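From the shared-data thread, chain only:
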Amino acid sequence: MSLYHTSSIDREEILNLVASVVMACPNLERLVGFHTPYNFSFDRLSHALSMKQKLKERVWLLTGNADDDFDGNDDELSNIYYQAECDPTERFLELNSSHPNLTTLVLHQETYHTSISLNFRAIIGTFRQLPSLCHLSTSGLSASSFTNMTLNALPPNLKSLRLEKLPGINDKGLQRFATSALSTSLESIALIDLSISNLVTLSHFLSADLANMKKFTFSQDNAPSLLFTENIPLFQSQTLEYIHWEVRSQVCPPLKHNTSTLGFPFPETEPTSCLATSLLSTCIKNRLFPNLRKLRAPHDPQGLLQAQCKPLITEMSSEDVPTRRPIPSDMMHHDGMLSFS
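Structure, as tokens:
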């Protein structure tokens, strides 16, 4: 991929060479490490990949301008008659129409290209053409491309879902999705920079109703809170094994709820903490996550989540101690994560 970006020769020539290799591989399942921007115009690589019926993974980096393809067209008839091959929606659907074995789909929109947007039909139509799809990642799609209606029309039987920087969805849409049959098959979900404002939304994902959930990721700048008329929800899961929790700003409005029953750990003399982090810490302490083994918390300024964890065990060499007990394999970590006792 670095060769593509730094090469002195024409990038289209490199693209065509890779396309030729793809065409020569009838059983190709995935193209690794070479993902070029797609600007809604014809290119040989996208065409070659669209013909691979055994493909299992497809990454779309949406960029460019959907109208660029029409700039050099002098045929005045094109302004009168509809041409499906020149319609960005129809073109995208066609490129995704022959992948019955595709299990992983990535749709990433470059956020600084606001002139491009896949419409509802292009996105949902693509999903419906992929019967084996079980891993989906969407990021950067515009507010008109990916809305609450799109979210609640996702394919069933997804195992993992990543939603990142999607201004078209809100708490209401996420709550509806989390409580629908569409979410029951999920084993992993990532909610990244979605500007979630309500704790109730998170409680629907950290819920005993999602009986297959094993991995949960939540990351955004602003701390979610509650309306003064809402009761404090619980976070809980009997199956969750991993949590990535990253609320970059712990500032939230002063609490006016009765939190005594949950035992929040801050006296009145200390500053108000993020209610979401406090609630997660308390629920972990109260053993509402019995299978939780790993927690990643890059921003935990008051150490609430740290207090619920024990340090990782570091194996000592035979020269350090004459005898030692073997460390169980499930306690060996090399990624800097905290481990629960």
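Residues 1-169 form a domain with the Leucine-rich repeat, LRR (right-handed beta-alpha superhelix) fold (CATH 3.80.10).
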